Amino acid sequence: QKEVEQNSGPLSVPEGAIASLNCTYSDRGSQSFFWYRQYSGKSPELIMSIYSNGDKEDGRFTAQLNKASQYVSLLIRDSQPSDSATYLCAVTGYSSASKIIFGSGTRLSIRP
Amino acid sequence: EAGVAQSPRYKIIEKRQSVAFWCNPISGHATLYWYQQILGQGPKLLIQFQNNGVVDDSQLPKDRFSAERLKGVDSTLKIQPAKLEDSAVYLCASSRRGASSDTQYFGPGTRLTVL
């Protein structure tokens, strides 16, 4: 059973600080990695995707991938109250037949 | 560009009744997905269509769930008969090509409550 594991939280971070969200996955053949943000009562929306080892930055968000350790993380710099949401890590394999598997999400709370 | 449309937004039924959900993907998107998201969990893929063909339905409880995408555009997901454990949000998503690296765009979801 291919799995994606996340700490459910809640993770409480002061406004302006860096929030660090972590995810591990079990399938070594995984190729594509995604971070989705989901506000309460809303549907997931894509924040970042990463496909190769290393860091990928987009504004205040940085995704980090380490395939050897089967680990992907999301850093949010200068955290804002609007960042309070559940963050879902998702992983797929190489082919289009490889279904995406979501973790259960980490609930992030930014305190003023 | 219009997003993924779903209806209804909310549905309350009693167990053993049937229910159907409708989804219209983003125009031009070949791939359509139905997910089940139970409270506190991540979305679980039920079925993936590429145009009007099924790519993956390995997690669809076929004794009670069915889905179709007849003309390769919109899709319906049906549950018959519903069980209490089917209470969840049913999310529809679409992507341009269905490649594993493609971005999936989600609709607003249908919240189903089975009493």
- Regions with little confidence, pLDDT below 50 for 5+ residues of chain A: none
User: Could you give the count of β-strands of chain B?
Assistant: 11
The most extensive contact between chains is: A-B, 27 and 26 residues
Radius of gyration of chain A from the CA trace?
A: 13 Å
Oligomeric state? heterodimer
Order of helices and strands of chain B: EEEEEEEEEEE
Helix content of chain B: under 10%
Number of strands of chain A: 11
Put the structure in a nutshell.
The complex is a heterodimer of chains A (112) and B (115). Chain A is mainly beta and 112 residues long.
Secondary structure: elements and pairs:
The complex is a heterodimer of chains A (112) and B (115).
Chain A lengths: L3 E3 L4 E4 L4 E7 L6 E7 L6 E6 L3 E5 L2 E6 L4 E6 L8 E8 L8 E2 L3 E6 L1
Parallel strand pairs in A: 2-11
Antiparallel strand pairs in A: 1-3, 3-8, 4-5, 4-9, 6-7, 7-8, 9-10, 9-11
Chain B lengths: L4 E3 L2 E4 L5 E6 L6 E7 L6 E7 L2 E4 L8 E4 L6 E5 L8 E8 L9 E2 L3 E5 L1
Parallel strand pairs in B: 2-11
Antiparallel strand pairs in B: 1-3, 3-8, 4-5, 4-9, 5-6, 7-8, 9-10, 9-11
Which characteristics define this entry?
heterodimer, A: 112 residues, mainly beta, 6-stranded mixed β-sheet, 5-stranded antiparallel β-sheet, 54% strand, globular, B: 115 residues, 7-stranded mixed β-sheet, 4-stranded antiparallel β-sheet, 0% helix
Written account of the structure:
- The complex is a heterodimer of chains A (112) and B (115).
- Chain A has strands at residues 4-6, 11-14, 19-25, 32-38, 45-50, 54-58, 61-66, 71-76, 85-92, 101-102, 106-111.
- Chain A starts with a strand and ends with a strand.
- Helix content of chain A is 0%, strand content 54%.
- The radius of gyration of chain A is 13 Å and the shape is globular.
- In chain A, strand 4 (32-38) and strand 5 (45-50) form a beta hairpin.
- Chain B has 115 residues and is mainly beta.
- Chain B has strands spanning 5-7, 10-13, 19-24, 31-37, 44-50, 53-56, 65-68, 75-79, 88-95, 105-106, 110-114.
- In chain B, strand 4 and strand 5 form a beta hairpin.
- The radius of gyration of chain B is 13 Å and the shape is globular.
- The mean pLDDT of chain B is 94.
- Chain A binds chain B through residues 4, 8, 31-32, 42-46, 49, 51, 88, 90, 92-105, and chain B through 31, 40-45, 48, 50, 55-56, 58-59, 91, 97-101, 103-109.
